[in-house]
Design brief:
Arc Repressor Mutant, subunit A, 68 residues, mainly alpha, globular
Length: 68
């Protein structure tokens, strides 16, 4: 997965970290968690705040769907 695979990253985060409320994470933490996901294969330093925000928002959506 690459930084641009927002939905895939969000789904993987929701699956591997169900106890985390993605509304309350900071971008440094999010970046670290994404780089540790199995299947992540991109430059860990080549991400900007806009991409991290997109991942966080998608993760929030995933978490809400998993609660239903």
């Amino acid at each position: 997965m690459k930084w641009t695979d927002v939905q895939d990253l969000a789904a993987e985060l929701a699956e591997t970290m169900p106890e985390v409320d993605p509304q309350y994470i900071d971008y440094d933490e999010l970046r670290e968690w994404v780089t540790q996901l199995d299947g992540f294969d991109d430059d860990p330093n080549r991400v900007d705040e806009k991409e991290l925000e997109a991942i966080q928002l998608a993760w929030i959506d995933e978490a809400a769907q998993n609660e239903q």
